[in-house]
Amino acid sequence: MLKTPLARRLPVWIEELGQIGRTEADGLWRTPYTPADTQAQDAVAGWMQQAGLEVRRDAVGNLFGRLPGTTRPDEVILTGSHLDTVRNGGKYDGGLGILAGIVMLAEVLETSGRPARSLEVVALVGEEGSRFPLAFIGSKAITGELSPEELEIRDAEGISIAGAMRGVGLDPSRIQEARRSDLRGFLEFHIEQGRILQDQGYPLGIVHTITGIRQACVLVDGRPDHAGTTPMTSRRDAMLGAAEMVLRIAEQITALGHPAVATTGRLQARPGGVNVVAEQVEFTVDFRHPDPAVLERMAAMIRGTCEEVAQRRRLASTLHVFLEHPPVPMSPEVQAALQASAEELGLKALSMASGAGHDAMVLAGRIPVGMLFVPSREGRSHCPDEFTPEGEIVPGLAVLARTLHRLATV
Amino acid sequence: MLKTPLARRLPVWIEELGQIGRTEADGLWRTPYTPADTQAQDAVAGWMQQAGLEVRRDAVGNLFGRLPGTTRPDEVILTGSHLDTVRNGGKYDGGLGILAGIVMLAEVLETSGRPARSLEVVALVGEEGSRFPLAFIGSKAITGELSPEELEIRDAEGISIAGAMRGVGLDPSRIQEARRSDLRGFLEFHIEQGRILQDQGYPLGIVHTITGIRQACVLVDGRPDHAGTTPMTSRRDAMLGAAEMVLRIAEQITALGHPAVATTGRLQARPGGVNVVAEQVEFTVDFRHPDPAVLERMAAMIRGTCEEVAQRRRLASTLHVFLEHPPVPMSPEVQAALQASAEELGLKALSMASGAGHDAMVLAGRIPVGMLFVPSREGRSHCPDEFTPEGEIVPGLAVLARTLHRLATV
Question: Which of A91, B159, B178, B278 minimizes the number of CB atoms within 10 Å of its CB?
Fold first, then answer.
């Protein structure tokens, strides 16, 4: 199914990269500026060289492989994804987009020769924020948004990003050099991380929007009472208030229909005694929608529900939004190019929102950006089960190569 | 209001005892075999001596003050309560019953002389289980139920009960000597720790039953999914299952009416990420009823609710009962004696269940036992707010003295 000898290496590379940063629990945890990261960069650099690309590392540690253009070499079409993983992550999230870019640049070279514009593939640094509490390190350096203050953000062991950079031979005072003004497009190849393509029977997804994301923390205050001596009707039980809020929010957001989502993944009760009525419960709500107006309506709905439940149950509640990413539309031109390539190859592609954040979100503010999804088996992602069989990667590779060539020959 | 000079010391003693084991957060944490415990025992022993009582410490560390009987000194009527507190506890839970016993034994002596039977007041060791995960240490030693294996139970720092006993000069191999066969009755004076007396306007409560208590842990298993990429209708969200179970259990138990209670004080979600659908949620249910048949029905109801919700939401659930105390009826004779004393004094007393466990529960298996409650201001207990004003203690003291005299002159 994979045509060129180099492309046939792809499944092997996925397995090899998937061993670097492997933890005892069978998952991956590969984070920026660690020995596993260096080992992965060395492996990827080697594969870039095998593909005939010029290899270069920038000031923040992003790794590039370049196929110089013939007539307009200073205009660059970029592909690739991130090299890091979440804790207990899988082999496909991020890694697949880098390896696909390498083999498809080689395929463009072999089948069509060098195009007018330059093509580059990138292994981006630190998209996940799973070591330092800062996501999109590499892509923010490329847009020039990574600030010196952010380099002081520390990991769980107290090591700053700047300190970690120095540890792998990078000079944090030079990050502005990572900024690029020659990029004319970015196309990220990625697993869907959901089960929409599988459930609806599409081999490919073309992203129209990266969803808007807000994360809020809700604090519910009641009264700590003795679990044995306080009648049910005399209580101000923060746990019951929180449980009702969580349930009602999920019901309301479900009623809005796809692609609205809301999730409570964390909930803590204080004092937390088996025989004490909860005085205070804190829980999170992650909610997402690609339409800014709907996202705003969801925020009001969630706030209103918490207030209504708290008042009726004689509790107090406060809601604090601690993360806010507006929806990011993908470039209509890149979407059209992807769609045209898919049609030429006789492949059906679903126009869809991405429910997850991506580096493409950061770069979309500056240059035309697109994303191409291949299915995730059972929708599993951010876990060792993450899997896309070779047969479901191949159609995406073909569309990727054709679209890169299309964008680079304009 | 307090008549004898000694009785007038009671409020001062409450304050003095309430300083021993005081923590920075204004609460008390006084646990067995610690320097605070020794200091409290010394203070209580001094007050027992001031009251004219013979002071003695038994093999497990219970402290007794004795007023010997005239004609039947080998038959003992015991009063008192526990000297230890929960973490961040208050001044009244336990301590009040000891101090009330001391002043009322002195009052009996002063107003009526020594009765036929002996009267003793006890400061019991370790009722709360707040240092070692074992409650009722002192009362179990008195009934002979404290086993050598239990003495190997360790605190958070790895110190066993036996080791801690040695540290304060007690010999754990001699605990059988704490066993008593001369007790003919036990009357525990205690704060209600709830707000039933206050709400219903009764100065006193006479306990008919110490409620049955079960504590269960419910484990709900779902599937960890990406919070952004998994549609609401495709999820198997353990958090939503747990929230519905917690709410439904509370609704059903509330519908059963007073005194049925059920409480979820602790809930934990795994993996606990803001942007991950909960794979597993674990929560506790503490449920209580004084009628064994109703308690059994509540257990079936809770189990059935968890199973029904889990099945409907495509989750798995298991329920494990880890603590089970059957309801303990109080002695009809002691209840009648308390009721007669209250009536003679023109005081209304409410016949009620105790929603909390007490040493009286342990002793009730062997001898006639009763409990007398005075109101807790706002029902506050197990917290520094715990308070009963002197004016609401006095009626209870009068009934206590009269009933002790009554039981000791039979």
Answer: B159
pLDDT tens for each residue of B11-29:
999 999 999 999 877 789 9
Touching check for A355 and chain B: CB below 8 Å?
yes
- Residue numbers in B near A284 (CB within 8 A): 274
Give the domain CATH number at B235. Answer: 3.30.70.360
In a domain, B1, yes or no: no
Residue A96 has pLDDT above 60, yes or no: yes
Residue A311 within a domain: yes
Mean pLDDT of B336-359: 97
Domain boundary among B309, B325, B341: B325
CATH number at residue A169: 3.40.630.10
Query: How high is the pLDDT of residue A47?
Result: 98
Q: Rounded to a whole number, what is the distance in Å from the CA of A229 to chain B's nearest CA? A: 4
Could you list the residue range(s) of the whole structural domain that residue B93 is in? 7-210+327-409
Query: For chain B, what is the mean pLDDT?
Result: 96
Q: Kindly report, residue by residue over A55-86, the tens digit of the pLDDT.
A: 999 999 999 999 999 999 999 999 999 999 99
Residues of B in contact with A213 (CB under 8 A): 228
* Residues A230 and A199 reside in one and the same domain: no
B-contacting residues in A 287-316 (Cβ below 8 Å): 288
Nearest to A265 among B259, B261, B273 (CB): B273
Q: Residue A277 — very low, low, confident or very high, per pLDDT cuts 50/70/90?
A: very high
Q: Which of residues 70-129 of A touch B (CB under 8 A)?
A: 88
For residues B134 and B14, membership in a common domain is answered with yes
Query: Model ipTM?
Result: 0.88
Do residues B56 and B130 share a domain? yes
Q: Do A265 and B211 touch (CB under 8 A)?
A: no
Residue A104 banded pLDDT, cuts 50, 70, 90: very high
- Other CB atoms closer than 10 Å to residue A1's CB: what's the count? 11
**Best B275, B324, B381 residue to mutate vs chain A (most A CBs within 10 Å):** B275
